[in-house]
Amino acid sequence: MNQQALHDIGFTDVLEQIAGYTRMERGKETVLRMQPVFNKDQIEHKMIEVQEAIEVLKRSGSVPIHVVDDIAQMLTQAKKGLFIRADQMTRIVSFLEHCGKLKRFMNDKLDIAPLVSSYAFSIDDLSMLEEELGQAIRNGQVDDYASKELSYLRRQKKMALERLKNKVEHLASGGKYKSYLQDKMVSTRQGRYVLSIKKEYRNKVNGTVLDTSASGSTLFIEPAEVGDIQEEVSMYTYAEEAEVERILFALTESVLAQEHTIHIAMDVMHEYDVLFAKAKYCQDINGIKPHLSAERKMNLIRAKHPALGEKAVPLSLTFGGEVDRALVITGPNTGGKTVTLKTVGLLTAMAQAGLLIPAEKGSQVGIFQSLFVDIGDGQSIEDNLSTFSSRLVSIIQILRDANDRSLILMDELGSGTDPNEGMGLAITILNQLYKKGSTLLATTHYSEMKTFADTTDGFINGSMEFDLESLQPTYRLLIGESGKSQAFEIALKLGLHPSIVDEAHHISYGHEGSYVGRFSQETLQADEFRKQVIVNRHANKQKKRQVQDVKQFQQGDNVTVQASNETAIVYKGPDDKGNYIVQIKDEKRTINHKRLNLHISAAELYPADYDFDIIFKSKDYRKVKNDQNRKHMDGVWLEEEE
Fold first, then answer.
1. What is the pLDDT of residues 53-108, one digit of tens each?
2. Are 437 and 404 in contact (CB under 8 A)?
3. Three-state SS at 382
4. CA–CA separation, 481 vs 466, rounded Å?
5. Sign of the CA dihedral with 47 first, then 53, 59, and 61 last
């Protein structure tokens, strides 16, 4: 799947959280490379593994997994001809002990985790190697009894050291050097016994100076009398080191002889490290195993975005499959539309990666081969592209790559440009992607898109609920309902005069609202309302400026009303406010020119001498007018119709 899309929906964040549960660097790297897969059987297998691992964790809080990163380094070192050091051998012994512990641990979990437990049985018996290394290594050192030769050499060395120490102590306490000594304490320098001799008596003592005090007043001298014994100690030391090296080389060969088996054991430890990290994460988010749909049907029941935890408002929705493959969601800016998009995309990706999802049992997710996401500000400074242009580049790529196995998430499609043109692009792009067979989830503010979704097969509407009492979004998704603009209701709730809201409604929709009628005259006379509509009468007498840039329509032009997508015919106008009177289904309405778009001009529809009274006037009106044109009729008046 597209890596940027996975990042945009938060899949990368989920992997980083799972990686935090791993013990090994290798396990962490494996988790961070996890990707959604497309094979249903493979996904099912991975999910069952996680379910069983959770059951294991419920019974036993910890699993005897040993870190293997350094073991791999030791094996690499050994294959280069170097021996494994004694302190490193201790780590290998610990690893081998854990192999046995892991097999016993998993054997006890066969009843609750038959699949996961079986992996431990692929580790061959390494107890003989463990015993061999354990007998030779103690506390990070080669044990005295690792070989007879080493035992003999260390005994001889110990006895020689005792003789050496006794000899030096005898010299320190005797009369020969008594007047030359700084003190009678015997100390060591560079592993050799020395006497503390005053500097001025250096020539009185035969021996080797091994160190000097910080003040320079004391010399630490190894007396010549102990030279023979010291050489004996050195000989045993060299022989001991050679024997230790020989033993370590032999132990290293034993380890390399089991290299293949050790690598298998390391791989099993690694797999368990990754598996139980996934299990701990899924346990923390209360994940469940969803049903998988190869037909790409979605049915989420009280699902939650894992990053929101307990704060998340449960999301329930059903769409996808062969019929209703497109869901268009409307609602306020902070109403949770984008979170809904990301939740659907993230839970789909998590499920296809073999993870459990935070939802209720019975939930179902589709299996998709590609995921495309267009969310947020993709402005490119380097390419000097606007937000709209940058997003459009992304959408064009989606149009190229999408197919019937694609899940496409689009947030505020068509925004960032002229509303009318953006709406047209949004509807056309959605329709084109639907024709490709893709499964779509889009959010919008365009009322025309709501109408399109209501009237187009395969599309369903959804809206984010808004609480008018608290003026806060509830973040609940309502399927089958198109969201209504709450601007006028919010304005009333906040105290805007209802007559102003009525006028705004008229400008927006071409007919009056009913907002003033909700308030009593007493309420409307209160200062907080009355002051809003007080006008400057002298200012009103001033000549009004000519309305500029008014769209010019001719009588009979066929136009489209933006707010409702209804078709209308221009009757007359514009007035000084830029309003036209248009006829919609035999009803005349006043609508501002900004809300009208030319569909077909009158010149294309009617001949030059066409009588528009046929369209705009009643039959009785036309009869009276024709009679009066032919002859004078006493007592008959022609009343103008509007």
1. 999 999 988 899 998 889 989 999 999 999 999 999 999 999 999 999 999 999 99
2. yes
3. coil
4. 13
5. negative
